[in-house]
Write a structure and sequence with these properties.
single chain; 317 residues; mainly alpha; 2 domains; 70% helix; 0% strand
């Protein structure tokens, strides 16, 4: 009979030395060296925040002073005669109707021409164009065109639309010129809105048998529409407030009739303001301030429409 081998195990492992929690905390050394630097960064951050606040207040105060001065000078001139009248040599008979109708023509035509071109370009760049140097070249040039001064577009419109295409100094020439001005902004805003749509939306549509265009039309565009509309309306608002390009393509300072078609001569509110401000009499300055109020109301109305459309489509989708 073989001997049994008995193995005796200890009841518990021998306890090691106790670990002092305080030993894990840094004492002196590197932690103390970083404290002055962190305190300096905190002070610099506070100073930078104060500088930004002062810069914001300067802009707000200047804008408030300008608005108060405009309303104080031009509010008394706002009446039915001013809104329904035509420019005149006499300040008490002068009106802004031709300029208001011309601005409305520019607004409508620029939106009609620029919206499909801008959105179509954004769809092609984001959904169809393959990643290549050509796509990068196009996107880089679109971004650069968004920062080109407006007077350059005016010179281009004068050379191409007024002279080369023989459209003349008409509403259509001005609308095409301003479309070139706002087109990069519309494309960039539409690209960002389309890019913000999650890719799972597209994949889900493809899984259900939809084609690429059906996925874009029924899924991507409805979700991107609030951002697209907001960018388009704000871009067109910029076009309405521009004076330099329309001067180059032939806006008139004195026009005694209302433009009824895209082939008529025209003027716009910014150029009418410029024309009145250039005159020495104080009465014309008040008329320019009143026209500025009309332009401000028009721009605020468009911005409010952009906010309304964005909120409406955001709730719908």
């Amino acid at each position: 009979m073989s001997d049994a081998i008995r193995v005796t195990l200890p009841d518990a492992a021998p306890a090691g030395p106790e670990l002092d929690p305080g030993a894990l905390r840094p004492r002196g050394g590197r932690g103390e060296r970083f404290r002055p630097r962190l305190a300096l960064r905190t002070r610099l951050g506070a100073v930078f925040a104060v500088v930004c606040l002062l810069a914001t207040l300067v802009g707000v105060v200047v804008l408030a002073v300008l608005l108060v001065d405009i309303f104080r000078s031009g509010a008394g001139r706002l009446n039915a005669t001013f809104l329904d009248g035509i420019p005149s040599r006499f300040p008490n008979r002068a009106g802004v109707k031709p300029a208001l109708v011309g601005s409305a023509w520019i607004l409508v035509l620029t939106g009609i021409i620029g919206f499909p071109l801008g959105v179509g370009t954004a769809i092609w760049l984001e959904e169809y164009a393959p990643e290549s140097r050509f796509k990068q070249f196009v996107e880089t040039n679109i971004a650069n065109l968004a920062g080109v001064p407006s007077i350059v577009y005016g010179i281009l419109g004068l050379a191409v639309f007024v002279r080369a295409l023989s459209l003349g100094r008409t509403v259509l020439s001005a609308a095409l010129t301003l479309t070139l001005l706002v087109l990069p902004v519309i494309i960039i805003a539409s690209q960002e809105s389309i890019k913000a749509v999650p890719n799972t939306i597209r994949l889900g549509a493809y899984a259900l048998g939809a084609t690429r265009w059906e996925a874009i039309r029924h899924q991507v565009l409805p979700l991107a529409l609030p951002g697209i509309l907001t960018g388009t309306i704000l871009a067109v608002s910029r076009a309405v407030g521009e004076a330099a390009p329309v001067i180059m393509v032939g806006a008139l300072g004195f026009i005694a009739f209302v433009p009824w078609s895209p082939t008529d001569a025209f003027t716009v509110i910014p150029f009418q303001i410029y024309s009145w401000v250039a005159r020495p009499q104080a009465e014309w300055k008040d008329l320019a301030a009143a026209a500025g109020i009309v332009l401000l109301v028009l721009l605020l109305t468009m911005n409010a429409a952009a906010i309304y459309l964005r909120n409406r489509f955001s709730r719908r989708y």
